[in-house]
TrEMBL record:
Name this polypeptide is given: Flavin-containing monooxygenase
Alphabetical UniProt keywords: Monooxygenase, Oxidoreductase
Entry superkingdom: Bacteria
Protein species of origin: Lysinimonas soli
Molecular-function annotations in GO: monooxygenase activity
Pfam families, per the entry: Pyr_redox_3 (PF13738)
Keyword Ribonucleoprotein: no
Top enzyme category: oxidoreductase
Amino acid sequence: MTDETPVAHSDIAIVGAGFAGIGLAIRLQRSGQTDFTVFERAAAVGGTWRDNTYPGVACDIPAHLYSLSFATNPGWSNVFAQGHEIRDYLERTADEVRSRIRLNTPVLDMAWDETRELWMLGTPGGVHTARLLVLACGRLADPYIPRIEALEEFTGEMFHSARWDHDVDLAGKRVAVVGSGASAVQLMPRIAELADHVTLFQRSAPYVVPRVDRAYTDAERALFAKDPDEIPRLRSELFWAAEEGFAERAGDPRRTEAARARALAHLAKGIGDPQLRKLLTPDYEIGCKRVLISNEYYPAFERYGVTLVNSPIAAIDGGTAIGADGTAHEVDVIVFATGFLAAEQPYAAHVHGRSETLAEHWAGGMRAYGSTMVAGFPQLFVLDGPNAGLGHNSAIHMIESQIEFVLQALAGGGTLEVSSTAEQAWTETLDARAESTVWTTGGCDSWYVDPRSGRLTLLWPGFAHEFRAALEEAVLQLTVSNEARS
């Protein structure tokens, strides 16, 4: 690809137009940097919130916190936003940089050209070069479908929750829901309202706590729009309340016990059948996996007669779904609520650095200095990547922290590159911090942990405010290091 004649050039190329890509683009433009292009493979912006349109899709972080601090929305209808509201918010927000977004333009290959000191991006329209490359591809972009014997021989219809087939009418159908994570908890009650019967295949029971939601009043929304201090005040209140949740995951026995008791009380209130309640009781510590919020999940089992299969699907025989426990269930539709390829990002195989691909560099689990820069990949930033997620607070806070890191690094000038020594030191520090958290000691099989190495690679093992402080220090050290090299 490096021998091809480029068709276009941008100073900065951003791959992905979800929260991270849109957010960075806006901040760049407002800072006066206008020579950038955002590449989006889909026909619309929005990332996760464009792709997930299943019944009941909603956010489990309060809306005023799950939005960009520099692009607030006074009109959120509820404390927790529905998926379509977030999608509409992102569409409106992207209008500020719409002219710089190229939709329906997948980046097929990205390679660092050592001679030209440029990134070469292969697109359907030709090679696009950039001085600096930002991967804002997201961690929940590519659906995961488990291996199931004879799945291709299923006689009914099937699809993943993130690729919802709205042409399939579920009314009167026998529907299998595969999975019991965040998406399943939201969509199962909605399917059960329509279907003749729902069978839910549960690999492991989740912890579920009440969804404390309400609509904002007209007066509240008017105040949000009128008083410029009101939304920042509310965001701060919500943020610090969420920060308290980390103590439950960091080994504080009192906090952990209280959180577990709350979840189990919610289970007892929602499920009257002792045997069913036993099957829905997690066998690991709370917080080891994502703690879910729902007021409808448990009641749906008894209200609609949902069948719980306490095992994954093992095989398909025509129109029969066979569980690993040997039970057979006749179904017409299979809905996979089985998550995403998160620990091993598919895009990594298409990013070529000085001597290896990003996938090869991450063969032992994702890692990056400041959770943002990767050794051996000059002029490259990864947003929402290694150890940049949270299990207790808003992902948008983390993304904004990384955006600030990028802007500060750019202000330092020169060729931006991090050493292997710096990356390794950062990684070892995080690995040590993760050892005492519930994510590595809680006794569960979590997508937060890389299955190849056993390392916690998806989450930041600390408070969200600590992440921002750590990145502020990391970018200062990066600037000093680059100045020394030059």
